[in-house]
Amino acid sequence: MSDARSDPIDAVVFDVGRVLIQWDLRALFAKLIEDAEELDWFLANVVTEEWHFQHDGGRPLAEMVPERKAEFPEHSALLDAYATRFLETIPGRVPGTDALVERLAERGVPLFAITNFGAEFWAQFRPTETLLDRFADIVVSGVERIAKPEPAIFALAAQRFGHAPERMLFIDDNRANVDAADGLGWQVHHFTDADTLQRDLAERGLI
Description:
Blueprint (H helix, E strand, L loop, with lengths): L10 E4 L10 H5 L6 H10 L3 H8 L4 H11 L4 H9 L12 H10 L4 E5 L3 H7 L11 E4 H4 L6 H11 L6 E5 L2 H9 L3 E4 L3 H10 L4
Helix pairs in contact: 4-5
Pfam families: Hydrolase
InterPro entries: HAD-like_sf (IPR036412), HAD-SF_hydro_IA (IPR006439), HAD_sf (IPR023214)
Protein name: HAD family phosphatase
């Protein structure tokens, strides 16, 4: 998805997970649970993306993990792995997007990001990813305790980044986040793959 707004774009704002980096809870837990049906059940009932999203929203692991262990005591060791081995849920970068970031940076386009990411996991992850050095500022939901698609995180980002929403292009894989930004006046791109994004950026004269 791209939009038809004609305002010049002064800055490009990326999502991080599933746009810049791959993220999949299965990448970790497939190492720890051999039975495929048990793995599916665990990811659907114990360490779910919905439960994980509480950390993205600002809830500390010290509250979440013991509470979950009380519900699923037989999975305590796996819940410890969730808390301590989170980097293993990130297999690598999303193919092709890093090259687009580099091309935008080389052209002097200001780069920013808004990410739903838990504060504790962000502290583990951020030092490992040099691509993020290209970004002037990154708004992290777990640090701010507000998450996409809440309007407040977009308002905070616009204030921090110093550009009007209608002059920024926001790129996200999550339709709800894209629709929220669109409704707040941002220019938007619903990310599916790097090739489609490349065409959109080229049409906009950004690369």
